[in-house]
Amino acid sequence: MDKSWMHSNRRSKAYEFGVEAFLNFAVENLLTTTHIRCPCVKCVNLKLFGVGIIRDHVYFNGIDQSYKNWTFHGEPWEATTNASRNVEEDDGHSRYSFVSEEIDMDDNDFGDFGSDPYEFANVIGDGDQPVYPGCRKYTKLSALVKLYNLKAKHGMSDVCFTELLILQGDLLPEGNTIPTSMYEAKKTLCALGLSYEKMQACPNDCILYRKEYEDSTNCPTCGISRWKEGKDSILKEGVPAKVVWYFSPIPRFKRMFQSHETAKSLTCHAARKSIDGQMSHPADSPSWKLLDDKWPEFGNEPRNLRLALSSDGLNPHSSLSSRYSCWPVILVTYNLPPWLCMKRKFMMLTLLISGPKQPGNDIDVYLEPLIDDLKSLWVGIRGVYDAHNGEYFTFRAALMWTINDFPAYGNLSGCVVKEYKACPICGDDTPSHRLKNGHKICYIGHRKWLPINHPYRRQRAAFHGKPEYGIPPEPLTGEEVLHVVENGDRVCWKKKSIFFDLEYWKYLPVRHALDVMHIEKNVCDSIIGTLLEIPGKNKDGIAARLDLLNMGGQN
């Protein structure tokens, strides 16, 4: 049957005749007009409707163009080996969209098959097999995914899930393909998951037990054992004291390019141009342009990715424990359009640093495997398949900056963010003042960033009793920062950041960015708390009034 109409304009006669031919074909083969799978791009053969509703869906939503073999509507099943050769023709879409809906995955999440783009059909070949002979509603894979989703949603134990699988197998007709144990189910589903590396760490955040320390039992820095200590003060050999989960981004980047639509979206930035001269996309930023100009071989390939890194502490136990701090490290891909790059499925979790205490300035220890991968991505990963262009290419990526709140900014950059020299721009010349009554340090030189004729510069009583005639200092370049931390006075720096191990990092004009959301929230909480006189949040107390009086009397 001619299926070229599926790619025609939905307002054309060819599309209209094709839809009617498809519906007639389905009714003739299924012998029903009320329970037919809808092949539109939203239903993707998951929902059953009558002919009239399906006709409306196909016109309004469009038909799923990857549904080339109409197996759910009476066309004979193709062999798995033949299906494996149709992957490239499917343009990155598939009949297995039920998997992404059930466990919130994107098309690029199906396994690591970077060396062979046709391996996709072999990995999920069970998706072509009905759950029992004659079943048209569920395949073995779709039924298993739904059952596993119930297990995760309701917290079933492995034993309970195994018994449920056995019961399901007894209830279904003979010849069903439901696995009989949790082990068999995992073997089927593991290909759909993401691999990760479980690393052991020193409880004092000194080292990761990898590379030359892989076989060590004690930390070479502090001497503490890598094993957990029980309540009886006896070491539990084989039970690590601290664990870090590392999810390498390289396999996931490969999968992104093996989805036709995602691979196309990753290069859309090359076609856009800034019309008004304003920065509406990271491609307009100085960091992006510097990478293009300084390394033209990198900038000339639009498929090379530009990344951002973000990390912050969170408490997975909610209010049950206020001391536990777990730190995820997330990568964001800026090549995607703005409406996609912040979607959850494109935000890549790369590290999960367990608590109970935050890593602080030692976070560089945990970032080592990620930095190693970023170095490899800068050199280039050969043999990455691009489904949009149908070719292999050498894939590269660069980290442009980090995004954090101010305390995490200090941990990642190595800059001092407390006490008298806390301004990363002013450095040694930070205008700070310790409040006699509030017992805190305040920073009073912020007016120097106002225009030179701004009236606030001349006001005295509203601030600290003095006018402001200074000019804002120039921030240090990456090369200057590197020189200071390696050779100079480290008054304003705690360490050399691990990001300087990246070849291009010292040349970037912006290496760390502050998360405005945190700053706005904290400032807003203080203002609202003061205006409404909320107990515990009101900043207008006796100590504050006395400190204002003291500063105003310094004239």
From TrEMBL:
InterPro entries per record: Transpos_assoc (IPR029480), Transposase_21 (IPR004242)
Looking at the record, the residues that make up the Transposase-associated domain are: 3-75
Protein's name in the database = Transposase-associated domain-containing protein
